[in-house]
Design brief:
heterodimer; A: mainly beta; seven-stranded mixed beta sheet; globular; B: six-stranded mixed beta sheet; four-stranded antiparallel beta sheet; 12 strands
Chain lengths: ~110, ~110
């Protein structure tokens, strides 16, 4: 059983489009995260939700909107995609809030043409 | 603010060689320190961690000791294998911050 899953694994799209990436965890965790990994492998947190409540929102353009329908899901919607959004996006989860061990999904490679 | 500095790669070693990947940090308070590993095409996996000064984390033959006096958490392995080829990330979890600060990652390539 996959603990943290993401769909799709690859996403290729044109500039200006809107796209979503889905994340689900079956670990029963309360806290979920989105990270962006750029082409140089630099990894930076974008958002964190705890029990559907936003607790971390790093300096991310408001074209990025996370949505958590329940504590097992955290989706990432991106409007008006730009070339610079090309990256690998990782979802992660942890329990409880403040737990310092996170479980990462396999990543979604987004390519904006 | 908190930060993590990691040695730049890539690091290329022959099988059975000794590995050291340097990591130093800057933090207020008493952070926890981690090493995560990312195999090709996969997400990050926790390799080991240490939560207080002088703690040693270890897993799969890898070790790292939390050194407060030198603000370091260097990763070591006595004899690397081809299967250890991956990107290794040092990370800091600041108390009360609920988030990681990652280093830039070090790519390790082990040749047979």
């Amino acid at each position: 059983d996959t603990a943290v899953s993401q769909t799709p694994k690859y996403l290729v799209t044109q500039m200006g489009n809107d796209k979503s990436i889905k994340c689900e965890q079956n670990l029963g965790h309360d806290t979920m995260y989105w990270y962006k990994q750029d082409s140089k492998k630099f990894l930076k947190i974008m958002f964190s939700y705890n029990n559907k409540e936003l607790i971390i929102n790093e300096t991310v353009p408001n074209r990025f909107s996370p949505k958590s329908p329940d504590k097992a899901h955290l989706n990432l919607h991106i409007n008006s995609l730009e070339l610079g959004d090309s990256a690998v996006y990782f979802c992660a989860s942890s329990a409880p809030r403040g737990s310092d061990t996170q479980y990462f999904g396999p990543g979604t490679r987004l390519t904006v043409l | 603010g908190n930060s993590v500095t990691q040695m730049e790669g890539p690091v290329t070693l022959s099988e059975e060689a000794f590995l050291t990947i340097n990591c130093t940090y800057t933090a207020t308070g008493y952070p926890s320190l981690f090493w995560y590993v990312q195999y090709p095409g996969e997400g990050l996996q926790l390799l080991l961690k240490a939560t207080k000064a002088d703690d040693k984390g270890s897993n799969k033959g890898f070790e790292a000791t939390y050194r407060k006096e030198t603000t370091s958490f260097h990763l070591e392995k006595g004899s690397v294998q081809v299967s250890d080829s991956a990107v290794y990330f040092c990370a800091l979890w600041g108390s009360g911050t609920y988030k990681y600060i990652f280093g830039t990652g070090t790519r390790l390539k082990v040749l047979a």
